[in-house]
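Retry 2 of 3 after timeout on previous attempt. Resubmitting structure tokens to design endpoint.
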């Protein structure tokens, strides 16, 4: 089983996957894909994701993973902006695009029988590619467009040492080793999930890929395949914790050793509950599409410093830049700047000015704010874009959200600012709850935990909150709904 990849009830061995990837590289080359070219990937969790990523690296090309949950117009924007030589996608996803596929773009369908060439037939018609690439290929990833169009983070061509350093960082982050059995729980168009797939396969481990996440199925797969490693976003922890106690106790999870979580903040009480259930196996990481993962914290370290996302690994560096534009000392809040030195650099595709704007003194900001303690552990406050200025005072919604999540009837929440004629901005809180919440009781609950000026002026209760697959709440959608007056129909206070 070592080195296999398992998707549902299908298994492909390492030798077969490498052979298919080499044949796919030949097919791509015959279609005109060369060094520096882009190949768009509109793929669900399947073997094709791994094969395509291995193939583009042989050609020093770029894989462009596309979030297939996006609207066809958003996908069409990516296909025009990235100017790929080739689009590989699952047939049903391609069928929904229609005229959004640029004219002249060659399309290969996985599992289809329509007008496009079939992926498996296309691979079988070519001999394995003999080259292995020069380490120049990588990825071009479009991050979710929270303020307009998605932006593309494109890795620059890497030297051999930069590629080796990137591999060393991934090995540390995911604790990779030949005997590992890793479970992929999230969509492979996201680098968080893709990283553990690629790193585990490269190290000779076995990878079990969930086609879609189901909490009990996750437990079943851990027991069935003796899973040792994994990667989850915090929203999946919440879904797991909601399982009935008899279901939780039904499965043997004793093989778990190292489970990474990242992608969104994790409420402290959620993490403690998971640690009490799964044991000391949860390792939190922090970084971004631009920087890659930079910090990591072990269960033991986190219990001593709850709320921290860790210290830099290997050649990583984290510094805090204050409002005066200078680096601050420990304990002061400011913009987080970070980097893993010696790994491949990046640019924003078609926007070098934006790339220059996020760098200072050799480090990169992702828009987060936070502070460092005396030992160099990083604590995050919030996104700068989410910070609210109310009555001349800075308020970090993440702090208010953490207080709300301590309420036993609040299962999820989102806090953001909206314009106000008197204070400039005031806070709105969307609460997910299965119970009827009384506004005065929620306010009284908060008064015992945060300052009065941080208490939301408006509360909205709903059955669920919109989230990306990575677990991030779509606050823009909630803000637009509130400002349009739609929220009052769902119980605004």
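Retry 2 succeeded. Sequence:
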């Amino acid at each position: 089983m070592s080195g296999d990849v398992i998707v549902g009830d299908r298994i492909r061995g390492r030798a077969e996957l490498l052979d298919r990837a080499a044949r796919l590289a030949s097919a791509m080359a015959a279609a005109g894909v060369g060094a520096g070219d882009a190949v768009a990937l509109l793929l669900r969790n399947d073997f094709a994701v791994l094969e395509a990523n291995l193939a583009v690296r042989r050609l020093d090309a770029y894989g462009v993973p596309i979030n297939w949950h996006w609207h066809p117009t958003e996908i069409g924007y990516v296909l025009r902006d990235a100017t790929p030589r080739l689009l590989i996608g699952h047939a049903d996803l391609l069928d929904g695009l229609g005229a959004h596929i640029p004219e002249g773009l060659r399309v290969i369908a996985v599992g289809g029988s329509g007008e496009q060439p079939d992926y498996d037939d296309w691979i079988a018609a070519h001999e394995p590619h003999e080259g292995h690439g020069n380490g120049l290929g990588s990825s071009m990833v479009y991050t979710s467009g929270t303020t307009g169009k998605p932006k593309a983070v494109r890795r620059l061509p890497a030297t051999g040492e930069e590629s080796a350093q990137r591999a060393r960082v991934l090995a540390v982050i995911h604790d990779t080793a030949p005997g590992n059995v890793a479970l992929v729980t999230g969509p492979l168009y996201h680098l968080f999930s893709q990283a553990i797939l690629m790193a585990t396969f490269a190290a000779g481990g076995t990878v079990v890929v969930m086609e879609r996440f189901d909490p009990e199925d996750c437990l079943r797969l851990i027991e069935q395949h003796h899973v040792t490693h994994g990667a989850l976003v915090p929203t999946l922890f919440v879904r797991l914790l909601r399982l009935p106690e008899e279901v939780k106790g039904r499965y043997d999870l004793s093989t778990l050793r190292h489970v990474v979580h990242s992608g969104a903040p994790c409420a402290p009480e959620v993490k403690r509950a998971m640690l009490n259930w799964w044991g000391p196996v949860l390792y939190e990481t922090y970084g971004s599409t631009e920087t890659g993962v930079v910090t990591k914290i072990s269960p033991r370290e986190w219990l001593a410093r709850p709320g921290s996302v860790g210290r830099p690994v290997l050649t990583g560096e984290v510094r805090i830049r204050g409002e005066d534009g200078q680096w601050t000392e420990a304990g002061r809040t400011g913009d987080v700047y970070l980097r893993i030195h010696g790994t491949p650099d990046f640019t924003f595709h078609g926007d070098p000015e934006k790339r220059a704007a996020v760098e200072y003194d050799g480090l990169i900001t992702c828009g987060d704010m936070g502070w460092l303690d005396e030992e160099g552990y990083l604590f995050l406050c919030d996104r700068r874009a989410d910070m609210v200025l109310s009555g001349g005072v800075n308020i970090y919604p993440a702090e208010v959200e953490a207080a709300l999540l301590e309420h036993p009837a609040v299962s999820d929440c989102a806090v953001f600012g909206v314009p106000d004629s008197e204070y400039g901005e005031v806070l709105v809180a969307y609460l997910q709850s299965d119970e009827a919440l009384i506004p005065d009781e929620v306010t009284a609950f908060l008064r015992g935990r945060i300052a009065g000026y941080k208490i939301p002026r408006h509360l909205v209760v709903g059955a669920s909150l919109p989230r990306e697959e990575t677990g991030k709440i779509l606050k823009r959608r909630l803000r637009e709904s509130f400002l349009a007056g739609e929220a009052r129909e769902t119980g605004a206070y």
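Attempt log closed. Confidence is low (pLDDT under 50) at residues 488-493.
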